[in-house]
Amino acid sequence: MSTFWSIWVSVIVLGTIFGCWWLLLATRKSQTTDTETDRTTGHSFDGIEELDNPLPKWWFYLFIATCVFSLGYLALYPGLGNFKGLLGWTSYNQWEAEVQQAEARYGELYAEFGDTPVVELAENEDAMKMGQRLFANNCSVCHGSAGRGSLGFPNLTDDDWLYGGEPENILTTLRQGRNGNMPAKGMMPNMTSDQVDQVVNYVLSFSDRAKDPEAAKAGEAVFAQACSACHGSDGKGNQAMGAPNLTDDTWLYGSTYGWIKETVMNGRQNQMPAQGERLSEDQIQILAAYVYSLSN
């Protein structure tokens, strides 16, 4: 936060607190008496008159105590722009402390399964209950609570894997993450609009869905130049590179003419964040077993 906005926020916060304080004291002083009275303020509505009575003392002092508490809180914790508070508390530090407590408490439970092979672990009911919770907390926001994915996020319950679905592939993905990059127009940045149409039709021809057979025939040469380096000459992909198979019915970004054309024209970039720094090796082992179990 810049210095200007830090001062702006601080002025608004402190101004509000001291404004409330002044309002309480000013209202208190304007009272004609410190006890209940029959004198009215001159306001009346529907035959009901407003008496000029002061706030009950306990209520007045409670408001004052609230203002004092607010100032004390802002002195100890963040709340005034860039001022970090005398205690130096941050939400990140709080999270780290809670994670350390959780690791101390549950670390032994995770360690029970950490040395068990993924395939064997996938058949352990207790381990899978733990894996499901790890998945819900760390993976479901992208892949869905059931692991079925959505547009741009892979389905983990089928047998179509960009980088391979064997235990070691899944462990590597979890530890290191993945960075997918489909360059715009592939390896042929000077591709014309006609060539885009041709290569899209050629890709659709893998599943007998080409709109224009003649364009699809011409697109074979374009595909060989722009796409085959990653997807292979037969379009069946390359798991070592994360290049998808274009001949099946599993598509990460949609398989219609429009979706494929957009992919060719603009490219695709996606990222599977690494979990190696967030989860322990035992947790990754259990999580990998759970993901493996979804498609096995």
TrEMBL record:
It is found in: Cell inner membrane. The keyword Ion transport applies. Heme c 1 binds at C139, C142, H143, M272. Binds 2 heme C groups per subunit. GO terms for molecular function: electron transfer activity; heme binding; iron ion binding; oxidoreductase activity. The keyword Acyltransferase does not apply. Its cofactor is heme c. The chain crosses the membrane at residues 7-24, 58-77. GO terms for cellular component: plasma membrane. Heme c 2 binds at M182, C227, C230, H231. Pathway: Energy metabolism; oxidative phosphorylation. Its main location: membrane. One of its GO terms (biological process) is proton transmembrane transport. Belongs to the CcoP / FixP family. C-type cytochrome. Part of the cbb3-type cytochrome c oxidase complex. Component of the cbb3-type cytochrome c oxidase. PANTHER family: CBB3-TYPE CYTOCHROME C OXIDASE SUBUNIT FIXP. This is Cbb3-type cytochrome c oxidase subunit. It comes from Marinobacter lipolyticus SM19.
